[in-house]
Amino acid sequence: MTTDSRDFAALKEDVALSHRLLYRTGLGTTRGHTSARIEGTDTFLIKPWPHIQMHRVQADDLIIMDFDGNIVGGNVKTITKVSEWPIHAELYKAYPALGSVLHTHQKWASMMAVAGQTVLPVFGAELATPVAEPAPVFDEDKALIRSVEQGVAVATLMEGAAACHLQNHGMVFAGPNVPTVTTEAIAMEYQAEMTWRAQVIGKPGVLSDGALRGGLERRNRGVVPASWELYWRWVDTQPDALRPRSADL
Amino acid sequence: MDAAVVADLREQVALAHRLLAHYALGAYQGHVSARVPGEELLITRGNPAVALARIQPKDLMILDFAGNVVEASADYPERIASWALHTEIYKARSEIMAVTHTHQKWCSVFGIAGRDVLPVLHPPTASVAAETWPVYDDDGGLVHNPEQGQRVAELLGGNVACHLRNHGMVFVGTTVSKSTLGAADAEEQAEVTWLAMAVGEPEAIEMKYLQVEVDKRWEPPKPDVRDGVARGEWGNQEWLDDNPDASWVRGITL
To answer: Which residues of B touch A199 (CB under 8 A)?
Structure first.
């Protein structure tokens, strides 16, 4: 993919939108980052440092990095790279099929690992793909993932996994494209909250393998979730769309 | 008293009050103060209580360490009832340059329950809870005279936070941003600890991952610079201040 192509412009828009949606869904305010592999190259698009408030990340804010941690393009005037870039670079290096990687400190999912509990596929077969299998927990090192060695260790643990806990730190999501990892991060948070709520009052019932199969199969083929165009792009234009509401009968 | 330094501190203390509102650490109660460097003076908000979200530099006052009003605010001329919480902490520990007092919900509930907030999420953020916070348990957690302020300062020791049981919290630091953002960081640790306790045994971050931040607590503050790029002391907080709607509680319903 060349950086003057239409596909590249669309990719930048998707990466920027991913950050805005993480903000809108309460998964992060300033920290956290989404990246996308630039197809056919050993480079990726990623949010820079100092952190831009998630709410206002735009396509032209992004930088391009190579797998060795060099900034090779994008908005390089006043910014540098996030310190945890090795999470992204090592996943792309290890798994050629990955198109996007996302890191958050999202509360519910992170908390469940802190509690030593597994986030279960409890709600909506299409939404439960990131926890169809229990997400692995990276707990051998709790320091931020700032070295290549740590990045390799996370990547190794994540083989084939859609989601991974960084114990006492946050989450990593990896998948075929930006819409998939973004909606899976959002869906993971919902599964975590619903698992927690069910666990406090009983034993959560989980979706069967059969129920999960179709969604997983589409996900692994790299099918972009229909909600990306139909729903999430609309959310981006509606400041009030996700404001919590309550039924007042 | 250096007029430029005082003017800058007024801006920062006012911003800190507004951020308490953004982070839901207080609505109209709570107060932040800054020591005036080299003086036995501090800057904090006046009384009566005003919405924290709209506090401006002109709403602040300067007190001396005996609690006398040195510079009043026209609209809020009375000193806060808990002034001695601030003066006694500054007197006890010269390295403390800012004090933040809140009634924040999640941290306070741990004081009430007699349980410890654990460092559970993101080591740099969690380091505020690296050590168990002491609990001031006199007089319903109120601090209305210098003796009570001294007791809090004694309990606080070298820590960065102290429970005022059945009342709220106090956080301290070498800058206004540190004591105030420390309160926000602490609230996140408290909520996650509480949620984890409901379904399991929370795993805390080991001290070896927190030590680097703990060691920096009382060092003179340094700008955060990477690859020659500096982040402002308040980071994105000033943007948040300009966008009051950005802090409404977000949630997901799929």
So the answer is: 199
